[in-house]
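Recall from the previous chapter that SMILES is a line notation for molecules. Here it describes 2-acetamido-2-deoxy-beta-D-glucopyranose.
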Amino acid sequence: MIRHTFSNLVLLWSITHGFYGPGGIHHASKNQSWNNQNLSSVPLDLDVRLRRLDLSDNFITQLHAFALPCLEELDLSGNQMDLISEAAFGNLARLEHLNLSRNRLSVSLGSNSKALRSLGGLRSLDISMNGLSNGAAELLLRNKSSLDQLNMTGNVLIKLSPSLFGESRSIRSLIIEDNLISEIAPQTFEPLSRLESLNLARNNLAFICDFTLHQVKYLNLSRNSVEFFVTPEDAVLYSLEVLDLSHNKLLYFPVLPKMNRLKYLHLQNNLLGALDSEAVMVTEVNSLYQDVVNETTLQKNYFHANWRLMPLVYIDLSFNRFASFPLETLSLLNSLETLNFSHNCLQNINWDVRNYSDPRQVRQIIFHSLKHLDLQGNGLTHLPLLFLKALTQIETLNLQDNSLQPCGMLSGSLPKDRIDFDHFCTAFGQLKTLKHLNLGENNIKILPPNAFQGTSLVSLNLAKNLHMLIHEMALEAVQTTLQSLIISGININSSGLSLPCMPALTEINISNNKLNATPSSLGCSPLKVIDVRNNDFMTINYSLVEVVSTNLTTVYISGNHFNCCDSRWLTVLNDMRIELPDISQAECFTQERNLTMSEYLKSPLFYCSFERDGQGVHFGGMVITLLFVTVFSLVLIFFGRKLCCTPGSSVV
Ligand SMILES: *[C@@H]1O[C@H](CO)[C@@H](O)[C@H](O)[C@H]1NC(C)=O
Ligand SMILES: *[C@@H]1O[C@H](CO)[C@@H](O)[C@H](O)[C@H]1NC(C)=O
Ligand SMILES: *[C@@H]1O[C@H](CO)[C@@H](O)[C@H](O)[C@H]1NC(C)=O
Ligand SMILES: *[C@@H]1O[C@H](CO)[C@@H](O)[C@H](O)[C@H]1NC(C)=O
Ligand SMILES: *[C@@H]1O[C@H](CO)[C@@H](O)[C@H](O)[C@H]1NC(C)=O
Ligand SMILES: *[C@@H]1O[C@H](CO)[C@@H](O)[C@H](O)[C@H]1NC(C)=O
Ligand SMILES: *[C@@H]1O[C@H](CO)[C@@H](O)[C@H](O)[C@H]1NC(C)=O
Ligand SMILES: *[C@@H]1O[C@H](CO)[C@@H](O)[C@H](O)[C@H]1NC(C)=O
Ligand SMILES: *[C@@H]1O[C@H](CO)[C@@H](O)[C@H](O)[C@H]1NC(C)=O
Ligand SMILES: *[C@@H]1O[C@H](CO)[C@@H](O)[C@H](O)[C@H]1NC(C)=O
Ligand SMILES: *[C@@H]1O[C@H](CO)[C@@H](O)[C@H](O)[C@H]1NC(C)=O
Ligand SMILES: *[C@@H]1O[C@H](CO)[C@@H](O)[C@H](O)[C@H]1NC(C)=O
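With both inputs in hand, we obtain:
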């Protein structure tokens, strides 16, 4: 009776909850995933109400008709499908999203293309990685008037022509990365009036000499072999907002549409600047334009005239060949906020600026909106005053890995050989708006007094200036604004480091030095993060820890030689649940041994409690002695009793 009820319950449960195979999900769900289940064919008896079916990463080679009238999304990517029978999709009337990526659609092309042709309602189609040639792709794209997104990455297309998209004119997003495209016939994309996003990265395009896609907002031509990019002038507003021409062979700046909405321009990893000077470059760009559009009556400086109108906010020119800074060209970009000029070959910034009215007067150029400037990895030895004065809005300046020396008010007491740079130093005090400055790896010899006076620096990175002397007044004037200070890897010892009271400082990194004591002034700061890795610390000032502990969240301590038995600081940090991310790598020593600090923390008393300055008995030793004595007495007592109480014993 009971058993009967039970089996009825089980039956009821399985009816209400449904029970499918390995990929089976809840009965009420309209999704089903059979991803990576070693299937060699589409499972039978699929729920006819399914809306989404994932059969990706299996071993399905052939697809025959199956009926799922509600199915909207089908993922067959990562199979080995070479034959889709002509009628396979006939009963998938509502299918909108089909993923056929990573199959072998080029094999039985006749049948495959007929099958796909019946899917007139598709909105997204992924046929990437299928070995498709131009002709094959064209066949698969028949009857696709609703298609919105198409991915053809990783095929073998060579030439794009209008016939390819003749029956898929509503495409909005088109990805054809990583093919062999070296030619785009005229009028290929023009009929795609809704096209917004076009990705042709990783192909073989050598030039673009007639860019006319007014409708496109995003264009990616990264990693081709593009040598130049030219837009013939017209009076139409282009929608272009993002243009990626990185990793190409550009010798010249691109000639962009006269009227555009371009905000992000990626030109990194090209050959820009390889020509001598800015003036030469501008002339060359203009004559190139003239050649390409076969224009004889050209206005004087077409390139600059257009450049001036661009609403660009971001330009990446890193990893190019600039030996001189294109001051005028870049200053024409009135909205430019971020300029990445890292990893070029600048050694100087010469003020080669054309003098307009009065040829005897130096013209001050201004970068009106520039907030973030990255000049790392150039060979700069000096930034001239005119350049600093041009940066009226600058907030972030990255000068890592150059050879700049900051100016300051040097006092006569400094050693003579350290003042020889006096005339070649950089006057950072000019940058009134500057907040974040990276001067790491500049081989700075000395940080002179008041080096940053005039700025309101929030963060300062001075890392890896091996052998830098820091004058005790160096941070004067920014001591109240500094929140983050990095003085890592400058080989400084504690007698060489004296810092002012910095009441805003929340992060300090003094790692990789020879310090054995923290600067006493740190007690002034509401520190949250302290990094003292790889120094000569034996202990950390307990009273400092106590003072700053209210705000402290994280301390990095590994790579020091701490005394386990002088580690009240550690107990406090540990008790306050301050994060010590590298404690398992941190070591400390006792008289007997070295151990990791996490090991020590497990039983501090065991290692240290009786050790007082090397005198007295070691606690561990004492425990062992005590144990030994106890066990010995117990054994004695036991045997004693045995001897006394054994019946018949007469020996006493
Ligand atoms: C089915 O999948 C779609 C898209 O992946 C998701 O938005 C939806 O929440 C899923 N439904 C259920 C019931 O899991
Ligand atoms: C698929 O086959 C492989 C190799 O035979 C096996 O290791 C794996 O467990 C199988 N996966 C499933 C879900 O059956
Ligand atoms: C198709 O599936 C692949 C994984 O196999 C995935 O990378 C790709 O994004 C999918 N395509 C679409 C349009 O979702
Ligand atoms: C094109 O797709 C529609 C469904 O949207 C279908 O009715 C029609 O038969 C298809 N045309 C061809 C030639 O297969
Ligand atoms: C396009 O196809 C490639 C290769 O299969 C894939 O990695 C990428 O995620 C796809 N892109 C989209 C947007 O689905
Ligand atoms: C352009 O495509 C490349 C290659 O896929 C990619 O790395 C890059 O992020 C894309 N650029 C933009 C701006 O999206
Ligand atoms: C360039 O224009 C001139 C006349 O303006 C014409 O004679 C010549 O054929 C054109 N060249 C090309 C390549 O179109
Ligand atoms: C500039 O480019 C370099 C190299 O790609 C990169 O590391 C750095 O983060 C970029 N700087 C900015 C401000 O984007
Ligand atoms: C502009 O005038 C200054 C001052 O006379 C001069 O040093 C500089 O060489 C001139 N620049 C050019 C490009 O003529
Ligand atoms: C600290 O460094 C300075 C400068 O390198 C050196 O003169 C001094 O002897 C060092 N002090 C100690 C205690 O090592
Ligand atoms: C430091 O902690 C104190 C007390 O909790 C708090 O008032 C102060 O705002 C904190 N300072 C910072 C910079 O977070
Ligand atoms: C502890 O480590 C230090 C430095 O690594 C080493 O000089 C010392 O000999 C070690 N002491 C013991 C007892 O292993």
